[in-house]
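Hi everyone, sorry if this is the wrong subforum. Our group has a chain we'd like a structural model of before ordering constructs, and none of us has done structure prediction before. Sequence below.
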Amino acid sequence: MTPQVIAIDGPAGSGKSTVAKALSERLGWSFLDTGAMYRAITAEALDKGIDASDADAIAIIASIANIETIPRVTINGRDVTDQIRTPKINQAVSAVAAIKAVREQMVERQRQFADDQPIGTVVEGRDISTVVFPSATLKVYLDADLSERAKRRGDEDEDELGSRDRADSTREASPLRQAEDATVIDTTNLTVEQVVEAIVKCLK
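Answer:
Right subforum, don't worry. Here is the predicted structure as tokens:
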């Protein structure tokens, strides 16, 4: 039986994680933050003194890493929940996420996670609708003004966010882009509850 999946994509600061968590609670579904997976690998690599551009070494780390994202983000049993939101990780994660071998491994894990859930999964990230779950039950693309996204992030200014947007949308492996059949929601002036309600209405 094909698992039910709500795939939520969008740039940093658009509200993906917050909305996805709230939506999963509303529906009683599981939640998966795929960005946290890439950030955890980034943290592990940097802690081992490996440069974010060393594709072969990071692919090895990804292949053997035990990653959990709920309730805390851990990699190989080490809690990195707070570490993965630091400027150091922000600056390196796009390079790590662009490594093809890493993405292939993570996509396989993400699909397996959804397959293992009893009801459904709300999954958020950059390539969920286009690559990971192209046949998702519902595809949603969240966006917001750059200034508003920077305000929400707090740890990244507009220039940093803009740079990461460009890196994520122009990478060769699974770039950030809006799926043609995605429901687009501009969250700039909406509350989390309003966004969740808009998504729930799309399921009816």
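For your construct planning: The domain at 4-203 is CATH 3.40.50.300 (Rossmann fold). The radius of gyration is 16 Å.
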